[in-house]
Design a protein that fits this description.
It is a single chain. The protein has helices at about 5-15, 155-160, 205-215, 215-225, 255-270, 300, 315-325, 355-365; strands at about 25, 40-45, 50-55, 65-75, 80-90, 95-105, 110-115, 125-130, 140-145, 170, 190, 230, 240, 245, 280-285, 290-295, 330-335, 370-375, 380-390, 400-410, 425-430, 435-440, 445-455, 465-475, 480-485. The protein is an alpha+beta fold. The longest helix is centred in the middle third of the chain and has 15 residues, at about 255-270. Residues about 1-25 have low confidence and may be disordered. Bound molecules: fe (ii) ion. Fe (ii) ion binds near residues 146, 174, 235, 380 and 414.
Length: about 500
Amino acid sequence: MNTTSRRRFLVGSMAAAGGTIAISACAPRPAAPGIPGFSHGVASGDPHPDSVVIWTRLDPVGRSAPTTVTWQVTADERGDAVVTQGVATTGGDRDWTINVVADGLRPSSTYWYRFTDDAGNRSPVGRTRTAPVGGVDRLRFAVASCSNYAFGNFHAYGHMAARDDLDAWIHLGDYIYEYANPGSGETYGEYRLLDPPTEIRSLADYRRRYAHYRSDPDLQELHRRSPMIHVWDDHEFADDPFVGGASNHQAEDGNWTLRVAAALQAYSEWMPTRLDGNRIFRTLRYGDLATIVGVDRQRRFLWPEADDGDLYLGREQFAWLDGQLGSVTSDWTVLMQQTTFGATSPNRRSGGWGERDRGRVLTSLGASGSDLLVLTGDIHRFHAIDVLSDPNGYDRSTGRGVAAVEFAAGSVTSPGSNGSDFGPQVRWTSGDQRGYAVIDLTPERSQCDFFGFPDPEKLLARRPAERWLGGFTSRRGAPGLVQAGTPAIR
Ligand SMILES: [Fe+2]
């Protein structure tokens, strides 16, 4: 999409969402309290039973030489019961960020962590939680996607941060957007000012955009309170990549390969994620109850292999996924992926997977006996879908013909529309509310609850109350959505 048509798209999306038409910049919310030396806070992510990634950033003002930072993980919030500690070095070559895998931890345990810089400044104290092993009674994950800073305050993150019942929070991509500030004269509604104000293209730009996001108090608090599990989508790089470029990459934007490398480097510096080079597809195990498998739909565009063909995930990643799914031993398999998985109507392909590649996933998982729960971002809409193995034999009242269940987590701020032309397998959808989802897993059933507030409320300076928008359960061993009467409670 070129700049002009992208603007038109934004206008259309906003209009569809019932947005206001006058353009004006929101008064900025107060900045995060900011602890001297650590104004971007702390974060943790990718929990294993014995380790977790912990993250912070030193304020670079007045610094030039590489600096050592000490880190500590403790069993108590005060910091008396030290479990493990170490020293890390950072500098300008990695934008003064620190990403440490803290290991030697116990499964299914809550820990606190902190950093101290060379001047004795102490970071905020973060809280994190390791994954369990063996038998597990219950797990709960919040799920979010599509957080366009310009479009509103991160109230959904604020509500997620206030929860005390999460094992981790999952983000399905579009954690940042690469766009410029909407210019005057555009029909865009109210917005928050971005830094940098221009579209991000260089390493310095991507770093500044991550730093700007992490100055948001709601996002910073969410990172501080709970570990994150993330897969990127397109906007962590540029809108809508294809092999050799992207819709939002024009000749004047410079070299595409260098832009991808810059975006990846800034990502690796700023996100608490276990990256293996450019591989973000990975598996996280939560004992006998859940296996979380994250996949990367942009991989075949960003780093194409010679023989990827038209497979949705590319040849190498799909072979890896087959192996992961075939060896699952947990009750539930949670597929972390970016866009619509199941077909939404008899006349329409799914958002990207298509029948062949969706069938391959179901077949690969089939022998394991695990139940598939698919998580979806990207579409800026909530939905709950019965994923069908037999569309002709589908009976929503009994679950006949259902192979898996799928939940789209709405968006944190990005505007959406309600859509149309849905078949009966789309049990519920809403595009005019922003928010997040919570999945609650037990050996007997899964439940997904949707929480949110009407789209215009995302621009309120004060956080709007969240509402339970509804929920669906699916029984273990008998996939098929059943509307829930109340939200799941731990
Ligand atoms: Fe998005």
